[in-house]
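Example 4.3 (complexes with small molecules)
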Amino acid sequence: MTAPIGVFDSGIGGLSVLRALRRELPHEDVVYFADTAWVPYGERGDAFVLERTLAVAQALIEERGIKLLVVACNTATASAIAALRARWPQVPIVGVEPALKPAAQATRTKRVGVLATRGTLASAKFRALHESLASQATFVLQPCDGLAAAIEADDGPRIEALCAQYVGALGPLGNAPGCIDTVVLGCTHYPFASPVIERLAGPGVTLLETGEPVARQTRRLLEQAGLLGPGDAPGRLTLSCSGSQPALEAAAGRWLGERTEA
Ligand code: DGL
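Answer. The structure with D-glutamic acid bound is encoded below.
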């Protein structure tokens, strides 16, 4: 039996990354941890997110014995990825960042909307990414307070209202000159609201998320480290969390459509 991959988010958002990982690496065992006692991270500040991320990573690496960690949370990646790599240099670690680079390639109008948490947008890591691409496109940054929490609560009317507010705040959308034609979903929770965002954004607007590139990068790191699982049996998925286990399992059923183990 080989060690599992660990996947971690503040809550259910990382399931959008897990979905892509299960497709890319169907034979790998995965332990998913949702820090649902403390979700959302996005409005709590850097020091708190760093402390929680280190604690969760420690439990996954030292107690669960994972072979690779996917930090499936933009906010935690921004606050903690450097500290994680310094503390566990022997463990391959994959982070997520808002898809600004693919957006700069994809946009024709050279205007891109970025929906993310307040924490991600305020981070030094995001600022550096933004500055490195500022000559290629104009990025309109929109913090989405409350949206991850509404998705976590599966609160349809609130998701709709917040998406209308935040998509509306981006300004004109579409593929006409001067409009935003590309919107980055810079929080792993937001793909679960993408049908709403897509409808509000209207035709001619492309939404970008990061699940698939993260899954491909995970495969590359496993291959490089000689850690790909040997089996061809379906990988086992174990879900755990610091909050309500039934709520996490219900969300996994909704978004992944597969049976899991606690
Ligand atoms: N899913 C997380 C992210 O990608 C954070 C949501 C939150 O906890 O605020 O940023």
